[in-house]
Amino acid sequence: MEVILPASKTDPFRKGITLTIAASYDNACPTHAMREFFAQDTHRPPHAPLFCIGRDRQQAFTREYVVLKLQQLALTAGLGQGMWNGHSFRRGAATWAAEVGISESEIQTLGRWRSDAYKRYIEYSNRERISLSKRFQRDQRPTLKLPISLP
Q1: For 111-147, what is each residue's pLDDT tens digit?
Q2: Cβ neighbours of residue 14 under 8 Å, at least 6 residues apart?
Q3: What's the gap between Cα 52 and its chain centre?
Q4: b/e per residue 28-38 (b: at least 16 CB within 10 A)
Q5: CA nearest neighbour of 109 among 47, 19, 22
Q6: What gap in Å lies between CA 82 and CA 119, rounded to an integer?
Q7: What is the end-to-end Cα distance of the chain in Å, rounded?
């Protein structure tokens, strides 16, 4: 499936960018969900925004609207006040990708990062930090070699 964004922070000339989303053929398949959505969403005019505020207004989401809804949903889900913002999805995606073993260069490609800024988004759980600490202790035992001086 291809989703065209008319503008993006990574699109300085505002030519639009195309996101490619693969089918997963499981219960959470994004392409199947999109087909189902379009089959049920018969009121939408052909060129209306995909995500709209309200059924009748057909006004595209704004960044502020999405952040406010994200904060409200986090509170409703019991996640607390938190620092939920527009980058929460990028942070979550980068963290998830690292957890499932996707390479750093692939994470950079998926997030359309040109710099290594994506590294700041990856969060590691306590379990991962403990595992890393154990591995470091086990695999990196330093050998002290003291210089010996003879009189």
Answers
A1: 877 788 778 778 877 787 788 788 777 655 555 555 6
A2: 6, 7
A3: 21
A4: ebeeeeeeeee
A5: 19
A6: 21
A7: 77
Residue located via tokens 């994004």: 30
Length of the chain: 151
**What phi and psi values does residue 65 have, to the nearest 5 degrees?**
-65, -45
**Tokens at 92, concatenated:** 């979550």
Residues 6+ away with beta carbon under 8 Å from 86: 63, 66, 67
Angle ∠(21,121,84) on CA atoms, nearest 5: 90
Report field, pTM of the whole predicted structure over 0.85:
no
The residue with tokens 């050998």 is: 143
Determine contact, residues 111/95, Cβ cutoff 8 Å.
no
- DSSP 8-state assignment for residue 39: H
Alpha-carbon span 108 to 105, nearest angstrom: 5
Structural tokens at position 28: 């959470």
Strands (E), 9-114: 17-20, 52-53, 59-60
